Amino acid sequence: MAESTKIDFRYRRLSQLDDITDLVAIFFPGNRNQQHADARILLTFKYVDSVLPSLGFLERQYEISRRTLERTRAKLARLGLIERVTWMNSRYGGQQGWRLSSRMGSAIWKLADKVDGWRTDTRPERREKDERLVGVLT
Questions:
Q1: 3-state secondary structure 100-113
Q2: Do 20 and 65 belong to one domain?
Q3: Which 8-state DSSP code applies to residue 84?
Q4: How many CB atoms lie within 10 A of CB 12?
Q5: Based on the domain organization, do 18 and 81 belong to the same domain?
Q6: Most CB within 10 Å of its CB: which of 16, 48, 95, 115?
Q7: Are 97 and 85 in contact (CB under 8 A)?
Q8: Containing structural domain, residue 36
Q9: What is the pLDDT of residues 18-74, one digit of tens each?
Q10: Residues 44 and 77 in one domain
Q11: Alpha carbon distance 67, 34 (integer Å)
C-alpha cells in the first residue's frame, strides 16, 4: 500500500515531534525530495537573520531541482511557515524576498483556543445553535 501524501496532524504524531526530520515528515510524507528541500529551506531561514532575496542558491548548493524547490516553497508559504516580503514593507527597509513567519504558530494557537472555548461552552443557547448548524449540513 502506498504511503499517504497528506499532511499528518494526528495527536500522537505531533506529540512525538523531536527534530527537523520529524517536522518535514509531517508536512511532506512519502516524498523524500520535498522533505530534503523543506529541511534545507527551514534550516537556511533558521540561521539567517535577514530576508533572503532568492532560494535559487539552494538548487546549486544542495542539488535540489527547481521544480521540487518551488513546489516545496509554495506549500510552506500556504501553510504560513514562510512568507514573502515585498520592497514596500517598511519594516525591512526596502528589502524583498523570503523569511520565516510566525503565522502558522499563531494560527494553531488560535485554533486550539477556539476548540477549547467550543468544548467548554455548554450553555443551552449554544447547544441550540450547534444543533441548527448541524441541521444545515444534512
A1: ECCHHHHHHHHHHH
A2: yes
A3: E
A4: 6
A5: yes
A6: 95
A7: yes
A8: 1-101
A9: 999 999 999 999 899 999 999 999 999 999 888 899 999 999 999 999 999 999 999
A10: yes
A11: 10
Q: Do 31 and 58 belong to one domain? A: yes
Q: What is the CATH number of the domain that holds 78?
A: 1.10.10
For residues 83 and 127, state if they share a domain.
no
User: Which amino acid is residue 64, in one-letter code?
Assistant: I
Give 82's strand partners.
100
Please, is 122 exposed, middle or buried when counting C-beta atoms within 10 Å of its C-beta (0-12, 13-18, 19+)? exposed
Q: Cell for 133?
A: 448548524
On the question of pLDDT at 5 being above 80, the answer is no
Cell (9 digits) for 55: 532560494
Measured CA angle at 61 (ends 60, 67), to 5 deg: 45
